[in-house]
Every structure is written in structure tokens, then in C-alpha cells.
Amino acid sequence: MKILFAADEFPYSGVALKMAAGLAMNTWSDITLMGVVPSVADKPATQSSIAGALEQYRETFYELCSHEDSPFKLDRVLWEWIPMQDGAWEQIKVFRGAHKDVRILLRFGQPAMEILKEARNLQSDLIVLGSTSGDRCLWSEAADTPQKVVASAESSVLLVKEDMAVKRIVVCIDDVPIGQEALEMINQMIVIHGASLVLIGLTKEGGTKPAVYQRMIEVGDYYADRGIHVESRTAEISELETLISQETREDMLTLSMSKKSVLGMLFSREWVERFVSACKSSVLVLR
């Protein structure tokens, strides 16, 4: 799996880093830590506050992923030739991870646009980013970045709103099968948080398609076989926003927004932006 961790220099990004590190370590994923520098800046990019934050995030990442079996454990010392500006080459000592390395990247421009562009370039499977908590969903210096990324990304997005234990992973189910990668991503959320699972079958005008019940049974059995506590219930699609507003900050809401899913077909990007802002909890959007 390829993970893109998109960050600014504020505390909520540090909270999201913990989640990105746990996912990367458990799944042996490739991970890129990226920040965005404004196109017009008063100092070189490498001296910017976001560059300093990325360096700290890198150190924190290695602290979180330093145990003996970690694929990121720094235990390879290599000598590598590096080109210099005057055409010369210099050999320097480089520390590499046991199996995986962390890539650090600075881009220039508008944050949401650059994050989406890099996600496409990387062909990332998951974007992880933080935001302000509660019923707000902002970045301090580029307010609408989280909403824009969640609404417009082609890949799945994990938006982390709270530095607190998640007790329940709440997954909305329609009649479209959930792929193996999505099932595993949900499983990782359950494992990382030690959470239980709640499945909500989405109904329309009082009726539930047989396929929705079938999907709920299949997904429920998948996790029950792994020793995970599973609860199931149904909810009207028309009442989804009300349901979202009632979920607590100790839940993580998971929605499938693929092009074939009911939610992906029914709701616009503007609805997704509004939903992300209204949701009190962290959100995982699967695509």
C-alpha cells in the first residue's frame, strides 16, 4: 500500500501522524510525508516552518516505528554518491530502514491542489491528514484543505480529528461489495484502536435491498471470524446526515464513496465537504 501523509505545522497534523505511522508499520506500506509551501514566500523553502515540521515528523515517525520487527528500523548504513551543484560528486553516509524508507517532500502552491496532485503522481492508496476537531474541519492557514481533499481525492482518505481512543468503527454498507483492500484497511483501524465494529445497512424509503443484507452478513462474518465484536443495524439514506451528527467523538465513521456505491452516486462533492465538517469524529472515506 502507498500512503501519503499530508501535513502542516500545527498540532492536529502531529495527531494524524500517529495514525499514519501505525498503518504504515502494520501493513509495511510505502509512505511519503509531504507539506506545501506558499508559492510566494519570504524565505527559502528549506527554511520554512513546514520544512522544520516535516523534519520533526520524520523523527517522530522513526520513534514510533523503532521496535525490533519494524520494517522502518534504521539498521542499514550505506555510502552513496550524491551529485553536487558544480558537477562534482560527493560520497556520504546514509542510514536506510531495514526494509522500508520514509520519503519527505515539499511542494509549492495551494495546499489542497498540491496534495491531490501528489496523490495522483504517487498513485497513492490512502491519504492521511489531520484537522481541527469537533464540528469544525479546518487547517489553520488554509482553512478548507481537509474538505477539499476528502471530496476530490481519487484515493481513500483518512481524516483524523481527535487525539483520543476510538471505541467503535462505524461502517455504512450498501449493495456494492467492499474490496479486500478496503476490508483490510478497516481491519487495521480496528486493530490499532482495539475497537469494535458497527455495520449500518443503508435503506431507501423503508426498504432494504436483499443485496444490502447479503453484504452485511458477508462483512460481519469476515470480522467475526477474526474475533472482532460486530453489531448491525439499518438506517435510511435520507437520514444519514442526522445519523452522522449523532455519532460520538469516540467513533470513526467509514463511508464507501466509490463511483459504483450508492453514496458515491447520490451525493455531490459539496455534500461530502459539508458532511466532513459536520461529523464530530474522525472519518475514513473509501474509494
UniProtKB/TrEMBL annotation:
Domain UspA span(s) in chain numbering: 2-161
Organism for this UniProt entry: Desulfatirhabdium butyrativorans
Pfam short name (any one): Usp
InterPro entries: UspA (IPR006016)
Signal peptide coordinates: none
Record protein name field: Universal stress protein
CDD domains associated with the record: USP-like (cd00293)
